[in-house]
Amino acid sequence: MSQSFLSEKLEEDAPQASVPLKSHTKNTLLISHGRPPWYGQDGERISDAFVIGVAGGSASGKTHVARQIVKALGSIPTVLILSQDSFYKHHSPEEIALAFESKFDFDHPDAIDMPMFASCLADLKACRQTNIPVYSFEAHQRLEETKYAYGATVIIAEGIMALHDPALRSLYDLKVFVQCDSDLMLARRIARDTKERGRSVEGILEQYLRYVKPSFDNFVRPTATFADIPIELISTHTRRQLQERSNAFRPKMVKMVNSSLYTPTLVKERLEDDPNMMIMPSTPQLEGIFTILRSKDTSHQDFIFFTDRLSTLIVEYALQFLPYSPHTVTTPLGTQSHGKKPDAKYLCGISIQRSGSALERGFRRVINDVPVGTLLIQTNSKDGEPLLLHVKLPVSIRHQFSAPDTWVFLLDAQIGTGAAAFMSIRILLDHGVKQDHIIVCGAVDNEMREGWLEGDRGEGNEDGAGRKDLGYGTWYGSDRYAELLNFTACIDGRR
User: Fold this and answer.
1) Is-contact 443 490, C-beta < 8 A?
2) Helical H runs in 101-215?
3) pLDDT at site 129
4) Which of 67, 120, 201, 329 might form a disulfide with 130, Cβ 3.0–4.6 angstroms?
5) What is the mean pLDDT of each run of 10 residues along the chain (495 residues)?
């Protein structure tokens, strides 16, 4: 199946925020040890991202202070430094001409798009994706491109007016004002603007005396009264807040089971207690494929071949859950043939690494010419919690206006605990993908267990003796897990 039925194409935006941005921009996403679950066993968000507002005069060292806060926090999952500089308004040709003559006031609150700044920050605080505007200081203009950002546990919003707008202040959990000597700020501004923004010293001084200094006295300095506590206390308070907001996700969802997940009477129909779970009918072909895949005597070449064959069958089965509309074509003999065509505006695949990679080739065989994104979710070796380490999503999901019209095939080759699939669904919902537009493709095999290979040393298996039982046993998600799924094209791996 080709993607030719898609009526619109989306232009690629800038590299995703999971990759640090270029050195000349202040918007930076710092990733350390992965993002633990931010939702409960019912799939609903249970806590917001922690937001810190950092204000101060121009070149007072706000970005440096933000980075010092990150350093003081230590091992914190994901931190986003969001700069107010990205939110300057779109300028008219007349305003641009004034800007090049150093006669435009960039330090007045009206120069900043405060509603957009607050909107982007509110999306990030609510654990949703956002698209940050890009402003060029060389051209004195907001560009058409945007920067995609998602997944921060801690957000540090910095800018001269970061504490000026009440809508912004209402989003902050903590507020900081950076005090700095005025002479030092001027020296820093001259060094920065000549090197990074292509300005002349004369123009910098003229702008400083005409706009920067009066703005600092009238608008920036008064916001110091809104500040909370010093950096040392901020880092301690932030760590404590994150600990209080943490969610011991896995133990709450565990259901100990000692028997098969599916009874023989339910193999060929919807599970009564999971109305959105669809199980592929067991056939001699499927039983033969599973027999080959389980055999220790199967060659490497045969294992790959039959894995691809299995993935093709799963995706072909899942295609029935896409929307279709009537379509008429003309045959080579000139007669009219009435049929159907897929009615999805945007279509893509998401592979849950690393097991989902096994399904990618089968997915591309059945549905070619569609984008495939990746999610890297691994298990914390200490407590068994899932950790989000990397997000790379197709462009139709990264844009808020197109995500609701996107249908997603979520590929997870070996559904064991269901924790990775559960987190992946929550990520898609955070991006605005509709719940009934998510089709999970995977396989359940009760005879296969996840674990470390003996002799394979690494984190959580330092002695190479194999994975220790974390005490959770074999389990699957709560009833809400089934409700979060649209349809799961799932193969039952019973013998």
Assistant:
1) yes
2) 114-125, 166-169, 182-196, 201-207, 213-215
3) 92
4) 120
5) 36 38 52 75 85 86 77 73 91 90 86 94 94 89 90 89 93 87 81 80 83 86 81 64 63 45 40 68 89 90 90 91 94 93 93 81 89 88 79 93 94 78 92 93 63 54 51 34 45 43
Which single residue is written with the structure tokens 């859950």?
A: 321
pTM: 0.74
Domain-terminating residue out of 187, 212, 245: 245
What is the spatial distance between Cα 214 and Cα 28, in angstroms, rounded to a whole number?
Answer: 30
Distances (CA, A) of 224 to 164, 185, 221, 272: 9, 16, 6, 60
In a domain, 41, yes or no: no
**What are the two backbone dihedrals, phi and then psi, of residue 4, each rounded to the nearest 5 degrees?**
-65, -20
359: nearest Cα among 410, 398, 320, 396: 410
Report phi then psi at 140, rounded to 5: 55, 45
Contact 374, 390 (CB under 8 A): yes
Same domain, 302 and 200: no
Contact of 396 with 371, CB cutoff 8 Å: yes
Please give the pLDDT value at position 56.
Answer: 86
DSSP 8-state secondary structure symbol assigned to residue 40: -
In this structure, what CATH number is given to the domain that contains residue 105? Answer: 3.40.50.300
What is the residue range of 469's domain?
249-492
Among 245, 276, 308, identify where a domain stops.
Answer: 245
Q: How many domains does the chain have?
A: 2
Based on the fold, state whether residues 307 and 396 are members of the same structural domain. yes
Residues 6+ apart with CB under 8 A from 341: 5, 324, 325, 327
Residue type, 319: L
Report d(CA 197, CA 154) in Å as an integer.
Answer: 29
pLDDT number for residue 282: 84
Specify the pLDDT at position 356: 66
Q: Give the whole-angstrom CA distance, residue 191 versus residue 262.
A: 68
Burial 41-58 (b: 16+ CB within 10 A, else e): bebeeebbbbbbbbbbbb
Q: How far apart are CA 311 and CA 313, in angstroms?
A: 5
* Strand extents, DSSP E, 245-383: 277-279, 324-330, 336-342, 346-353, 372-379
- CATH number, position 341: 3.40.50.2020
Residue 217 lies in a domain: yes
3-state helix, strand, coil in the chain (%, to 5): 35, 25, 40
Q: Decide if 52 contacts 234 (C-beta within 8 A).
A: yes
Q: Which two tokens stand for residue 180?
A: 């700095």
Is 262 in the same domain as 241? Answer: no
Per-residue confidence (pLDDT) for residue 461, from 0 to 100 = 54
